[in-house]
């Protein structure tokens, strides 16, 4: 029977099947960070258990850490400091490899996995973090888990799982001028809704997906969870193999050849059946911006704020009204007329070198509007070094952007980088939920190029009016 | 994990879809290294004003919902972040069951690991239960996991689906790591085969 990419990886990892159909699924890579692990290690300790495969486990500190120079003098917030120290202590006690806080490889867990060559095609990858879906861009089955499941994987290197259904999102044709992976995934979520993928694993296919670089594919898979699917995947191809070959963790010698043979066998078979198929035409996608407090409330940048009164369903109408009020909007207002206070370019969604290049290409030779605070937060120390090698930091600093240290930063409001109540941000992150970037903060999600354009304009702006005057080398 | 068998209690109505885990517990409260004590931050942004005082309009600040043991909501409850702090906060507040038309996958899993029962019922039943819940303390709702039914105050019963393995673990309050370790020999075999066929997956 023809199999999908998901079926193949799933089948290769079933250790045992329980009578009710639940599978005991083997986990090849377990990434950990400081926020969702302390209680799991407590559980291990209480039961006298150890980490079964320390070599298949890797920890990094990303959520709590400051992204300014203060990181070099210790963490100010005592609770954050304790959480970080707890991960460091647990790593020693349980023999878990941990990237030190001030190491050049430190960064956001979903940036460093692929970058270090630890996230590879055909693997099962988990992390106590919903954006683990990012690693599916490598052609892996990667999904977020809760802390009890973290403990389960630490102790057994397996998870109890029911198979997901297969969903294919097909993006045909070529992406239009000014658009990126971020615009694709926002358009997909706008189409299927935030629960459109619940119970499914999404495989992204079509010319527009094939044409994306690995960073673009990671952005698409990253936000798959915002469409309700725990995992998003892209079948591995030459783009994937070339990317892996440049990473320090790439299999070497004969291992490379046998790995490559396995990876090439992974793409979905001709005739494989998907439970759900959604098709989009790439050239119909315009640069996207969210206007509400759910990622599904998204519009092309040329759009206007909807009027809740036009909606018949009472619950939905109340929800729209709540969003309009919270976001400080007026129905009928043009998105491009919304002034922004803060621009945030970063997060596990968009902080890779390609994202920073895209922002710098728009910013080059221009100036951030006077009333805007614009931050660029590279996803890892290695991304930061690469950007500096290319001179992107200079371009951004000269344009008036802050050039910061790697971390989760303003994506989630648990470290010093937060919005103040009422502030409006243009953000390349993944969630525009109420209070996500800080209590009372108002978030508009968009691509790195669109965020850069908003920083220059001082309001949400159409990146197609801000194309680079000269190409970056 | 505390076993869940039957529960009869006050239900709090939260008639909204997409109640995300950032709403249930904002990230700034995730810094604790313990599982306990998150209840005081449950729904913090909606429940408390900026000065820390209670927002009297929020349902869990009203009688009898301060003692609610059940929440009734609409679609896609628990979407967003994977934080297990969300069910920990619900449980610590005293809520042991959430009833909604559907749940986000990770939140759903996390609930079962903590003795919080997510009950899926059709939207129209949830709408009826919201109306029941609005009656407050005089309209207690019963959730019977063994029989897989929710019983409205008027005696009407609604059957809900639940996975057999999860039901078993939940009824008996069992830890699933112990259950998995009964398969240790198969895990050993799997690892030996993988080490031979995919040696690049084993780090030196």
Automatic annotation (TrEMBL), chain A:
Domain Aconitase/3-isopropylmalate dehydratase large subunit alpha/beta/alpha: 7-458
CDD domains: IPMI (cd01583)
Entry keyword set: 4Fe-4S, Amino-acid biosynthesis, Branched-chain amino acid biosynthesis, Iron, Iron-sulfur, Leucine biosynthesis, Lyase, Metal-binding
EC assignment: 4.2.1.33
MF terms in GO: 3-isopropylmalate dehydratase activity; 4 iron, 4 sulfur cluster binding; metal ion binding
One GO process term, biological-process aspect: L-leucine biosynthetic process
Cofactor stoichiometry and binding remark: Binds 1 [4Fe-4S] cluster per subunit.
Pathway: Amino-acid biosynthesis; L-leucine biosynthesis; L-leucine from 3-methyl-2-oxobutanoate: step 2/4
InterPro entries attached to this UniProt entry: 3-IsopropMal_deHydase_lsu, Acnase/IPM_dHydase_lsu_aba_1/3, Acoase/IPM_deHydtase_lsu_aba, Aconitase_4Fe-4S_BS, Aconitase_4Fe-4S_dom, IPM_dehydratase_rel_enz, IPMI_cat
Catalytic activity of the protein: (2R,3S)-3-isopropylmalate = (2S)-2-isopropylmalate
Region (Disordered): 419-444
Family classification: Belongs to the aconitase/IPM isomerase family. LeuC type 1 subfamily.
Assembly behavior: Heterodimer of LeuC and LeuD.
Protein name: 3-isopropylmalate dehydratase large subunit
Species the sequence originates in: Plastoroseomonas arctica
Automatic annotation (TrEMBL), chain B:
GO molecular function: 3-isopropylmalate dehydratase activity
Catalyzed reaction equations: (2R,3S)-3-isopropylmalate = (2S)-2-isopropylmalate
Leading EC class: lyase
GO CC annotation terms, alphabetical: 3-isopropylmalate dehydratase complex
InterPro entries according to UniProt: 3-IsopropMal_deHydase_ssu (IPR004431), Aconitase/3IPM_dehydase_swvl (IPR015928), AconitaseA/IPMdHydase_ssu_swvl (IPR000573), IPMI_Swivel (IPR033940), LeuD (IPR050075)
Residue ranges of the TM segments: none
Record NCBIfam families: leuD, PRK01641.1
UniProt-recorded name of the protein: 3-isopropylmalate dehydratase small subunit
Organismal lineage: Bacteria, Pseudomonadati, Pseudomonadota, Alphaproteobacteria, Acetobacterales
